[in-house]
Amino acid sequence: MSEKIYDVPAEWAKRAWVDQAKYKEMYARSISDPNGFWAEQAKRIDWMHAPTKIENVSFAPGNISIKWFEDGILNVAYNCIDRHLAKRANQTAIIWEGDDPSQSKHITYQELHDEVCRMANILRTRNVKKGDRVTIYLPMIPEAAYAMLACARIGAIHSVVFAGFSPDSLAQRINDCQSKVIITADEGLRGGKKVPLKANVDAALAKADGVDWVVVVKRTGGKVDMNPTRDLWYHEAAAMVTTECPVEHMHAEDPLFILYTSGSTGQPKGVLHTSGGYLVFASMTHQYVFDYHDGDIYWCTADVGWVTGHSYILYGPLANGATTLMFEGVPNYPDNSRFWSVIDKHKVNIFYTAPTAIRALMQGGDAPVKKTSRASLRLLGSVGEPINPEAWEWYHRVVGDDRCPIVDTWWQTETGGILITPLPGATKLKPGSATQPFFGVVPEIVDADGKVLEGETTGNLCLTRSWPGQMRTVYGDHARFEQTYFSTYKGKYFTGDGCRRDADGYYWITGRVDDVINVSGHRMGTAEVESALVAHEKVSEAAVVGFPHDIKGQGIYAYVTLMAGVQPTEDLRKELVTWVRKEIGPIASPDQIQFAPGLPKTRSGKIMRRILRKIAEDEPGSLGDTSTLADPAVVDDLVNNRQNRK
Ligand code: WT7
What we know:
Elements (H helix, E strand, L loop, with lengths): L9 H6 L4 H13 L1 H8 L13 E6 L2 E6 L4 E2 L1 H5 L4 H4 L3 E6 L6 E5 H17 L7 E5 L4 H13 L2 E4 L6 H11 L3 E5 L2 E3 L2 E3 L1 H9 L7 E5 L13 E3 H5 L11 E2 L3 E7 L7 E6 L1 H14 L7 E4 L6 H13 L3 E5 L10 H9 L3 E4 L1 H9 L3 H4 L8 E5 L5 H11 L6 E4 L33 E4 L5 E2 L3 E7 L9 E2 L3 H9 L6 E9 L5 E6 L3 E4 L2 E4 H9 L4 E11 L3 E10 L7 H14 L8 E4 L13 H8 L17 H7 L6
Parallel strand pairs: 4-17, 6-7, 6-8, 7-14, 8-11, 11-12, 16-17, 16-18, 18-19, 19-20, 30-31
Antiparallel strand pairs: 1-2, 3-13, 4-5, 9-10, 14-15, 15-24, 21-22, 21-23, 23-25, 25-26, 27-28, 29-30
Helix pairs in contact: 2-3, 6-7, 8-9, 11-12, 14-16
The chain binds 5'-O-[(S)-butoxy(hydroxy)phosphoryl]adenosine (WT7).
Enzyme class: ligase
GO molecular function, one term: metal ion binding
Family: Belongs to the ATP-dependent AMP-binding enzyme family.
């Protein structure tokens, strides 16, 4: 197989923080002397008490314990705002670009300070204290950043719920962490369409207890119901508080945030990240992976509802005193040139997006890109799912004019920050490969039995060592943390991803090997979609698998067995799609629903998903051994009625 390799451009090797020799030297040190290496890195942030204990980690069965910088004391918001004020009070911290191209604004570090203090004071005057949970259900508006940083300032733990989630999903997340306060907006605005956020909160709160206050940001001015004993307008409350708010002193291992993510069960997990290690790691990866230098304009297109938004719109860039762009809209509104016009409008130097967006825009051809200049661009990034080499090449050639390196960054909600990635001044690029481990990261590829595979190989990706940005626990359920990540392969963290290592030691992530699917870079548990389907009165049983999708990476394929006597009609198919959207959110809409009189089960009753995946992939010729099925005949019906014929 001939493989294209892109060398590090000479000017990059010269000006970047890290060149090839430095990468080797720093990586070796990070492995041979982790305590010394990370003690030095900890100095990138300001501590009220500098840590003297660096790493204190156990991956031992029955005693999973992860602590970094544990005697350090800091405040994350202070590090992202206050410490920059002496030098950067008038520098733009956030460029906000609205859904409507005529709307944008620049927020300086001083303004950010003042707004965050106001929001923090609103929370403090409502009795929110260190350790309390606050759920944030906001669109991509500056108030989302204010809310997150306000929580960090007073030591409250934020749980941001993506504004595309349904009232039920929101209620589930509010209940799990028992939030006292919700911060939301009247409505969101995306691609010219309104999203009824406050109404969704009202519906969620009918199913959740313990919420004292709902703070409502006015975004569209649309009509909403206000409950006078519970709901307050942000702009009214903000007018009654000051722009000064002392920061809470936090231990390095005090929680910073919870972020729910999907796994192989129906219940999303509350991934818990803490303060010191997370911030050191987010800041460091942002600097080195994006080769961030003072004065750069940096844009990550993610939503703050996902971890990418936490680490690489907010915490990493702001800890580094950067100018970070926050975009309310979508890539194709008002037209397919939107990303590239925004890059020209704000002179963006570093651009970080997802393969699904690249593939969708690639379908619209080169013209919408080529009519813009993009001369400011220096570096491109990709995250969220494997990027196919065709999309990589297009991104490089058409968007980057063959001039900008691409950093394909592999990581997870659980990892807090980027773990496998090129460094643009150091790493030769291979389209489709996330390339090499970041400092302190030791990947290992194992087979199904846990045997460690050396050299050129394919298997399951584990990490044998901790890094400061690692999640610490599943909120409220440490046993589940161990069960999910440390029980498949004892003594190491299992990522859930398949991976190939090539002859050059480059890593190629092949996708999830568990019951998680990745739809447009959004992580979905097949079990979540299944439980939504079986909650419908006409559905008796459901099985969901992923299938390759040209734009989304993976699509959702649902096999549905109906209750006796229910007719499988087109209308019912549509009704079920709408139902899942309502139960979970639009990102979970099934692309295909196949009515199945029976599902392929083993004699012990386990659904054989391998067979369902092959049928969904339109590969009925390669079903493999079906002789262990309780009733092999069900397969014929499934094959004959498959929905996805090429
Ligand atoms: C899963 C984690 C990382 C923040 C966004 C997603 C997949 C992520 C890559 C990449 C191949 C990737 C993995 C991973 N993934 N980045 N560069 N190449 N796959 O976070 O929702 O926690 O999903 O996304 O399968 O396990 P997440």
